[in-house]
Amino acid sequence: DIEMKRILFAISTVFFANTISAATFEVEMLNRLGKESMVYSESVVNIQSGDTVKWLATTKGHNVQFLSVPEGVGSFRSKLNVDTEYTFTVPGIYLYQCTPHKNMGMIAVVVVDGNKDNLNAITSARVAGKSKQRLAKIIEILNS
Predict the structure, then answer these.
(1) Are strands 24-33 and 52-56 parallel, antiparallel or unpaired?
(2) SS3 for 99?
(3) Which of 65, 133, 73, 62 is nearest to 95 (CA)?
């Protein structure tokens, strides 16, 4: 009976510790940031499983659409002009874009648990226009 209470306490401690440690990271969707246009405020966000990224519609006309994700993760596409969030539970790299500005280089990544097993898929993702250069810079960061 005491042993069962200890087991339940241990399980609940682990569960609540994971819930408490989950964090939320904010990324702004912007028309301009310094000399760059059509960008997310962070091109690479490193988080842990259970963390949430909240994208803020700081300037109008932007959204978030997953382009390449770890195996087993479904598609995700937010509406234009709204704050949106996603809680990441599968380790790996998530490449995402702003649908209307994908050719203008508005792409970024979230890396969950430092896991880069799907880096080849990210490297070979089909992107166009300025996104090719921005993706090359992101891959450089991921490889460093």
Answers:
(1) parallel
(2) helix
(3) 65
